[in-house]
Design goal:
With 213 residues, the first copy, chain A, is an all-alpha fold. Chain A has nine helices and no strands. The first copy, chain A, binds a DNA duplex (18 and 18 nucleotides) through helix 3.
Chain lengths: 213, 213
DNA sequence: GTCTATATGCAGATAGAC
DNA sequence: GTCTATCTGCATATAGAC
């Protein structure tokens, strides 16, 4: 539509990139201060334009939030679907679910934080009622894996699987608030450690056969 | 100061109760929609007065948030202190820390949710910079218990204790978003189940001593 | 695609009557 | 202790020039 039709310097940013630049600024601000507390002026300042100019690219502030969260949820859904398609051992699938979650969070850190912090607020806005569905799908994915594990006898059956799901998923997703992946401690290691904690527990295995600790 | 000096009908609410009523309404709204997105008019509506009248009781909206969070944090600090004073087995103390957390969350559900959701936003306001300290104290309490357990050989030493702390504490505190205690499933049971999951893991112990992995 | 200028509404907060 | 009335500022969003 309004995209330029001539080819610019190939080293310059492509057309359409401007939208992404704005969304990046907006997402960072939304994540840090909350959606309601972030003004379109702050977003414009961060980009380096005036607030009125934002409306050339987006219909409203809500529209920006919408795009940010939608792409996050699309990615999340894709990865969870792939994990569920694998019919492997429940322990492996649980680990894969943890890893997939951390990968999505790493790819969309701001969106993940917005989802964590502002979900209640957003659900009060009609436009975002679809978020309720997204939450249900996430829960279904985890419960499928947990319940399969219990059925196979691999997982304990004495705990309510919904409670187990909540405790594990929230712990993993909230890592976006404090975890910064590094060479020394990449997300794969966090996924391994978290899964190991959830599956085997914090208790030392000294007393057992040999000593694994 | 401004409290009435005569004794009213003993069945009526005591003087000073009006403040509490307002704080309750405010806390519920702050928790549900977020502090920034809640207006003083909504609070007044909920109480059944006009927004201007709120300022007879409180200096500002921030002052309300301040009182709500302060009493929550005071209670939290008290209970954590008591748990740390007990020099019992690390497993027991970890359970007690979980239980203390759930008790505070149960006693101040709205405040706990505000703290969870709006901490980033509030930390951007000078008045609330003291919240940073509160967070450090919580972390110290958990790390003390975890590290003591590792030192005693009761807990595994192969996981970073800060990571373990984050995963467990966030899972427990976030339960305020979904857990509603009932006769059938009171907080004591959640504390037990969560502690059991963290300490012993989700893996079934069907096979004997041999392969637990 | 950005700017200037501005419409419109609602936010937090205040002063003084009752 | 609440209400009436209102101040002040800033929010989102728009219209049209450049």
């Amino acid at each position: 539509m309004s995209r330029s039709t001539v080819c610019e310097d190939p080293l310059a940013r492509e057309p359409g990139d401007r939208r992404e630049t704005i969304l990046d600024s907006a997402a960072a601000l939304f994540a840090r201060k909350g959606v309601a507390a972030t003004t379109v002026r702050q977003i414009a300042d961060d980009v380096g334009i005036l607030s009125g100019s934002l409306y050339h690219h987006f219909d409203s502030k809500e529209a920006m939030v919408d795009e940010i969260l939608s792409s996050f949820l699309r990615d999340l859904n894709d990865r969870y679907t792939k994990v569920l398609a694998q019919k492997t051992d429940a322990r492996v699938r649980l680990h894969d679910l943890v890893m997939a979650s951390l990968e999505v969070v790493e790819a969309h850190p701001h969106a993940a934080e917005i989802y964590q912090n502002d979900l209640n607020y957003l659900l009060g806005i009609e436009r975002f009622s679809y978020l309720r569905n997204a939450g249900r799908q996430v829960q279904d994915a985890w419960l499928t894996v947990i319940d399969a594990g219990v059925a196979e006898g691999v997982f304990r059956g004495d705990l309510d699987s919904k409670i187990v799901y909540r405790l594990m998923r929230e712990a993993i997703w909230l890592s976006v608030r404090w975890f910064k992946p590094s060479r020394a401690y990449p997300i794969a290691k966090l996924a391994g450690d978290a899964t190991s904690l959830f599956l085997d527990g914090l208790t030392a295995e000294t007393a057992g056969p040999p000593d694994r600790a």
